[in-house]
Amino acid sequence: MILTSGCIIGACCQVNTCEVIPENTVIFGSGCQRRVQTERPQPQTLQLDFLMKILPNYHHMKKTVKTTSAVTPAKN
């Protein structure tokens, strides 16, 4: 599936994997009805700001434990 700019896919809606969704298409409802918006959707700035603040709180890095392997020099 190729999802172009300005598209919105509603919850529980299904699309084919080999489908190209035209710009500003909205897929909605129980029957996955489609329509093309006349205007581009507004940017989701409030959601983006919220996610930029909240996501780092839940992104925890795990420290790796260094394992040292005993390397013995080769004897001739």
UniProtKB/TrEMBL annotation:
Its job: Part of the dynactin complex that activates the molecular motor dynein for ultra-processive transport along microtubules.
GO biological process: mitotic spindle organization
Protein name: Dynactin subunit 6
Classification via SUPFAM superfamilies: Trimeric LpxA-like enzymes
InterPro entries to which the protein is assigned, alphabetical: DCTN6, Trimer_LpxA-like_sf
PANTHER family reported for this sequence: DYNACTIN 6, DYNACTIN SUBUNIT 6
Native source organism of the sequence: Oncorhynchus mykiss (Rainbow trout)
Compartments reported by the entry: Chromosome, Centromere, Kinetochore; Cytoplasm, Cytoskeleton
Gene Ontology CC annotations of this record: dynactin complex; kinetochore
Similarity section: Belongs to the dynactin subunits 5/6 family. Dynactin subunit 6 subfamily.
Gene3D superfamilies per record: Hexapeptide repeat proteins (2.160.10.10)
Any one GO molecular-function label of the UniProt entry: dynein complex binding
Keyword Cell membrane on entry: no
Protein keywords: Cytoplasm, Cytoskeleton, Kinetochore
Coiled coil: none
Major localization listed first in the record, in broad terms: nucleus
